[in-house]
Amino acid sequence: MSQETEPLCPPFEVLSPELAGPDAIRANLGAFSIGVESPSPDGNHLPKINLKWPIKQLGRELGQLARGSNLFRRGQQIITIDERTGETRDMPTERWCSYVEDIAWTYELKGGQNPMPVWQRFPKELAGLVLNSDDFREQLREVVAIYEPALPVWIGEGAGRTIELMAKGYDPATKVYCVNSLDYDRNLDPGEAQEWLFETLGAFPWAEAEKPSQVLRCRSFAAHTAGMLAPFCSLLLGDDACRPMFPYLANQPGSGKSLLAKIALAPVFGKPSGATASKNPDEMEKTINTAILMQRPYLFLDDCKSFQSNILNNILANTQIETRVLGKSEMPTLPNRMQVFLSGNGITLGEELVRRSVIVDLFFPGEVLKRKFPQTLTHAWAFSKETRSRCLAVLWSFVRHWRDQGMTLYPEATLPTFETFAEIIGSVTLAAGFSNPFAERHNVLGGDDEEKALVRFLCRLAGEVTDMENPPEYRPREIADKAEEWEMLDAIIPYAKDQGKALGHRLKALRGRQWRDTQGRLFEFGKREVSAGAIYPIRFLADS
Question: Measured on CA atoms in the order 412, 197, 276, 147, is the torsion positive or negative?
Fold first, then answer.
């Protein structure tokens, strides 16, 4: 019986990214053709791959060949990238069987005593083994993000370090693929950029701006500007920088919160897709796990209700996430560069989420749907190529201005846990002439935790008291009824089925605490037990 000969050429040497192009691969692998006669002229220019080689060798060598193609590894996925559009496609086993014909000539040795290589189609069963082998995946170039426009990146080291826009194609340093198919003005004047942003977005009901002249120095307007800069400057932040969440909170529907969040995302990502923030922890975990596994650059939780989420806290505070593959026991650790955006009306966030957020507050005292804009802004306008290009020009002018001014780090641009993010995004925002996006929030309702909402309610309740010598006492049900009358109950107890009972538990934790009511009077919130349950008195105190 004939015995198959040894492989006709040695295993490939690992190629550096600089030698990853098709021509470079063919030049380095010329030895592959030695002694191998191709029965078809179609295979003469391709490296030869023996389908009978061990799986590890097949995986390693095909993976090295794939480095010169448009095949990449993104998280747990194997994908191809269209260099013209940036469109990605998965690589299932069926597709691989035809795709491999563009990078290798696959054969088996046949012919008895003097075997000759005969072309063979790549078997589907073998394709699955190769695509899932560690040897194949380790050779593929990893891509962490694909961007349609050119984004700013760091160039050089030390004193010569500066910022430029990335070039078209794959950048091995950042592991980012730039399609560069959306052009924009690279020389827009920063003053003109600020003026355009103000004229375009100034009419939104920014909470801290009572009149148009206050918008440019308004904290929420600055926070939104930082929200636009965050995706655009993502590559400046690096792999080890945590990214805070950007919640857009409004006091009533129709304020423009969702549109503003999409305006922040659209310049870089085009029309953004939103997800629902479920109160069910399992559903929320599934949504976030999917986004991490897919290595999505952003997560937009639209039209949210009040909620807390431990997994979302984890995402915001860590750059490496151990996530679960649905239906499997695998728990891979993946990089996390995801920027989270959220929108909601008067919602209550958990205290940890508030601490990890840069909140944009929208407040309108009247009927917001009756307000008039100097120009109508629609989703179609926000997603148009013209608007995206203009926004990109504005953002690049802000970054370029900060660069040209020496990249000064503003001391007030600080946010615990997000130091790198705050230094860069905050400094660019401040250098552009806006307020500090990380400044303390004032006179807002949405976004605080439930305890703070309850304290605000109690201060308002005490402020209603006229007889300080004989102040009223309240049962939990009376307090719940008053909170519901003032439309504050959902902010205080957002999750409970029995809100009255849940309120009673929260009130117990506050007994003995002292605050000032809405009239500035110092009072103590107490509690005393009676046969029918508990009663909560308010006692006014003399200032010391």
Answer: negative
pLDDT band at 503; cut points 50, 70, 90: confident
Burial 326-353 (b: 16+ CB within 10 A, else e): eeeeeeeebbbbbbbbbbbbbbbbbebb
Residue with tokens 């508030």: 354
Confidence (pLDDT) at 13: 37
Helix (H, G, I), strand (E, B) or coil at 341: strand
> Which candidate, 94, 146, 144, 143, places its Cα nearest to that of 122?
94
Reduced to 3 states, what is the DSSP secondary structure of residue 190?
A: helix
Predicted model pTM: 0.72
Of 254, 167, 242, nearest to 204 by C-alpha is 254
pLDDT of residue 43: 57
Which amino acid makes up residue 307?
F
Does position 23 have pLDDT exceeding 50, yes or no?
no
Name, in order, each residue with C-beta under 8 angstroms of 465's C-beta and a sequence gap of 6 or more.
471, 472, 517, 538, 540
Tokens found for residue 62: 């095909």
Kindly report the CATH number that applies to the domain delimited by 190-367+378-431: 3.40.50.300
Decide: 63 and 136 in contact? Cβ < 8 Å.
yes
Do 164 and 403 contact (CB within 8 A), yes or no?
A: no
Q: Give the mean model confidence (pLDDT) for residues 219-225.
A: 97
Distances in Å between the alpha carbon of 340 and those of 267, 373, 413? 16, 28, 20
Does residue 124 carry a pLDDT above 50? Answer: yes
pLDDT digits (tens, 9 = 90+) for 223-272: 999 999 999 999 999 889 999 999 999 888 889 999 999 999 999 999 99
pLDDT greater than 50 at residue 175: yes
**Looking at 25-39, 93-107, 421-435, 476-490, which range is the least confident one?**
25-39
Query: Could you tell me the residue ranges of all domains in the chain?
Result: 17-141, 146-178, 190-367+378-431, 450-540
What string of DSSP letters covers 73-119?
A: EETTEEEEE-TTT--EEE--HHHHHHHGGGT-EEEEEESTTS-EEEE
Contacts of 328 (CB under 8 A, 6+ apart): none
Cβ count near 182 (within 10 Å): 17
